[in-house]
Amino acid sequence: MHDDARSAELPPTQRHVLSHTLGHGSTTRPRLLAATGLSKPSVNDAVSSLEGAGYVRRNGRHVPATGKPAVLFEAADEVGWALGIDLGSSHIELMAVDLAGVDSTHVSVTEPGRPDAPRRREPSTSVMDRAVEQLAEWCRRPDRLRRLRAVTIAVPQIVDAGRRQVSTADADRERGAVAALLRALAAHYDGPVRLENNVNCSAVAEMRIGVGSAVPSLAYLQLGVGVGAGIITEGRLVRGAHGAAGELSRLPFPWADGAEQASRYAMEDRLAASRLVDSYRSGNPGVPGSSIGDVVRSILADVAAGSAEAKALLDEYVRDVARACVALAAVVDPDIVVIGGEIGDAPEVVEAVQAAARPLHEFLVVSGSVVGELATVLGAVVLSLEEAHAQLLGEHAVHATAAVDRLGTTLPPQPRK
């Protein structure tokens, strides 16, 4: 949001009233009186000022079982919106949400590919161009124009503390896709842009609106072409001194008496879902499907049909994943380890991992992802939503959790562009 459109700091009473309005989705003056403890004149003045400035609007009437009807108020356009971006190696996911968590939009910009295709470092020019066009279209919408309040970009790399917050003015200091996104945002937004590791974002989504929402800690194990873990304890991300916490690819492997010399990325090669896919395809060159999930389903079908080869292949991979889960549990002791990626979408595989891990760690609980393929972009937009509340409401930003919960129940369809 540009400085001339960025809201002048709201008075404390208005921030208090607006916070409760965002937290409840819609409210009335009597409800605000009860919730805030403010006097009736203070509530009336705050609501009138917020309505006049475009932060709240009327939305019908509430007719209680007893008592007088009351005007309903909800957040209006001036409150603004938050943006999350998942910058993958071959795709870009965009998600926008208003600060009440009611109105969200999601678009995935990608190109079809095969799991055995060479791994890209960044999306293609075609994907970048379409994502930038979509981003500009969103920012030009009348209800969103010059009202963007927070941006988080999830990136597949280590993000140290010195780079965690950048701005659109830093585009020339960044490279590739991040620089292109910052340049695209520059015409519409001049606030801070948060960079966050993509697996950390997935962990945030699973913690806030997924399987971890009822526990204080979790480890999110991402199994795809690459491997990594996002760790949350006491509700907070664990990043480490250099932003490298959870970088399982850095674990030396193998690590046992008599084992050959450890290789730096051998653990990632061992745990990556692409290894399972490649092993299966080598013996089944005509297997249909283009995604890791397609191949996993083919393996499970072969196992169900009695294939000893498929079972041996799956059992070996399950044992390795189970040991990785046990290693995470031994160091972090989370309430739950969530398996992400398309491996985590297969309940049979998750159950097999839990069974293999149980004899090795009595406290370990393994689960598949509830959030699924949207985990990274959802985590990014959740972080932006929380930041937007903090920036707008200051000490009264106590209802971001309600907005996040509301977002989790109103997820949009997932069009492919």
From TrEMBL:
Residue ranges of coiled coil: none
The organism of origin for this protein: Streptosporangium carneum
GO terms for MF: DNA-binding transcription factor activity
InterPro entries (alphabetical): ATPase_NBD, HTH_MarR-typ, ROK, WH-like_DNA-bd_sf, WH_DNA-bd_sf
Region (Disordered): 1-28
Protein name: HTH marR-type domain-containing protein
Taxonomy, superkingdom: Bacteria
Pfam families: MarR_2, ROK
PANTHER family to which the protein is assigned, alphabetical: BIFUNCTIONAL UDP-N-ACETYLGLUCOSAMINE 2-EPIMERASE_N-ACETYLMANNOSAMINE KINASE, ROK (REPRESSOR, ORF, KINASE) FAMILY
Similarity comment: Belongs to the ROK (NagC/XylR) family.
Record domain HTH marR-type: where: 10-58
